[in-house]
Amino acid sequence: MGIRRTIVTGLLAALAAPAVAAEWPAPIAAAIAERAKSCAEAGGKLAAPEKAIRRLDLDGDGRDDFILDDRRLACSRGAPGWCGSGGCSIEVFLSSAAGGLKSVLTELGSGYSVKTSGRGPVVTFKTREGAVAYRFAEGCAIPTGRRGERSC
Questions:
Q1: Does some domain include residue 107?
Q2: pLDDT tens for residues 2-43?
Q3: Structural domain tally of the chain?
Q4: How far apart are the first and last CA of the chain?
Q5: Is residue 26 part of a domain?
Q6: Phi, psi for 44 (deg, rounded to 5)
Q7: What range does the domain containing 64 cover?
């Protein structure tokens, strides 16, 4: 009976995630659904995924861009699947003039901060190797220092 209950609970949790995520653009909803599935497979339920999503204009085009910070996700059974010894996944999604949204950068770290510079917002990630900062333009992540790689 216990195993059956765990399986049913896990399936219900996985099915509930897309309904909550339906309010977000498709790539964000898909990322949250994937994380909810991982949590459900561990016998848990993903709680308050909206706390992990930040909406802001990173590239100055007037459209919403998103940062998904897995460090802020909570699974009722263990750590979220996207965290490990190097930190948690922090993913940046940029909008486009065509109306789409795509992932342009993923860093592993213990957090991030956003500051505005003369060239627009700069996102600094706290990684295991130290801070790495990026600005965003024309659908690309562009490192502001010696560390990091341009995404396009």
A1: yes
A2: 444 444 334 333 333 333 445 789 999 999 999 999 899 989
A3: 1
A4: 52
A5: yes
A6: -115, -175
A7: 2-143
Angle formed by the axes of helices 26-41 and 2-21, to 10°?
170
Which residues are within 8 A (CB) of 8 and not within 5 positions of it... i.e. 6 or more apart?
Answer: none
**Is 57 contained in some domain?**
yes
Which two tokens mark 35? 């994380």
Secondary element (H or E) of residue 2:
helix 2-21
Task: Dump pLDDT digits (tens) for 76-99.
Answer: 987 666 788 889 999 999 998 888
Q: Is residue 148 part of a domain?
A: no
Distance in angstroms (rounded) separating the CA atoms of residues 46 and 95: 26
d(CA 50, CA 21): 8
Q: What is the DSSP string of 21-34?
A: HTTS-HHHHHHHHH
